[in-house]
């Protein structure tokens, strides 16, 4: 659906319970209007490599995605990132030595809450 010609993604985009090993945003998808992107309960091992091209992205939330270990390059427009119940990714985003720290150091608000209880 995101690849349909003429389709413009909504400002809030959620990928929930994705079973694919990887996710990509391919052309001609128009993602310029996406401001809030949320990945939840996904089995994917990596986020889209071209996430940096989502130029209006203001917030990124990654929740219950245990297979994601690192972040791709992120757009300079990103102001908020939340990572919840993703232990490897949380570790890789820690200041100052985390592998992904340089990719989020510019982000104004970073939230890595302690492990929470997951209620289905």
TrEMBL record:
<dbReference type="InterPro" id="IPR032675">
    <property type="entry name" value="LRR_dom_sf"/>
</dbReference>
<protein>
    <recommendedName>
        <fullName>Disease resistance protein</fullName>
    </recommendedName>
</protein>
